[in-house]
Amino acid sequence: MKNKLRVFRAVHRLTQEELAGKLGVTRHTIIAIENERFDPSLSLACRMAELFSVTIEDIFIHEKKG
Fold this sequence. Notes:
This protein is 58% helix and 6% strand. The chain has 5 helices and 2 strands. Strands 1-2 form a two-stranded antiparallel sheet.
């Protein structure tokens, strides 16, 4: 799934390690999400949106297939 996590992280001046710590995940999870190799759980996506005070849709872009 396409996302703007890297942009939100940069705007908030957080390293991947700092963001991972705030969300209770590993840095590798953040890297995988930013590189669009891993889609977060709904729970994790909600925590990200809360942290950045935005909606999930502001961070993640759902692309229709077909």
